[in-house]
Amino acid sequence: MTKLLSTTALAVAAACFVGACTNNPARRIDPQGTETITTYDQLDIQDATDAAAELSESLLASGRLGKDGEPSIIAIDRYINNTTQQIDRDEVIKKIRVTLNKAGVAQTLTTIDSRGETGGESNIASKFAKENIDNEGSAVTPDPLVPDYALTYKILENKARAGKIRQTTFTFQMSLVDVRNGLAVWEDEKQITKQGDKSSVGW
């Protein structure tokens, strides 16, 4: 009987020890650090925001923005997600806008929607813009609706597999178009390739 109790106690203790060792209590981590979860076949949030920030920095480095000490006005034109995943448009676009606006050489227009019509992100600013356009469509005051550039952002996905190993390549493309003539004055792209057979922590 004593031997049985001892064996049971040891088993319970071992189970508790294993449970304690594998327990991973909730805690805060750096969203840009190396402890975030990395999936092998999905677009992680750090992938999307990092790509948006990197392409924005590339645009800033091109010297295209800001002329004669005045910031360029940019309208976010199209956001195209050609992947199998639901990727938050606002989170990606906001990363671009924050990066560009902080640099001081660009301002993003909030009163034009994805169809090129008045009624963008800011309801109050869009309402004011509509009230300042007369019945013929010309601006009564200096027109706040005409941007210098339109920005487009596109995400593509390509999958491959060899045995148990799966590989996914995400391509991020960003273009800046001069609204006066339709010319693409700047373009760049970034690729992220992920490979593995299971998700992991860290990257």
Automatic annotation (TrEMBL):
Transmembrane segments: none annotated. It holds the Pfam family LpoB. Keywords: Signal. PROSITE patterns: PROKAR_LIPOPROTEIN (PS51257). InterPro entries: LpoB. It comes from the Bacteria. The keyword Transmembrane helix does not apply. Residues 1-20 form the signal peptide. This is Penicillin-binding protein activator LpoB.
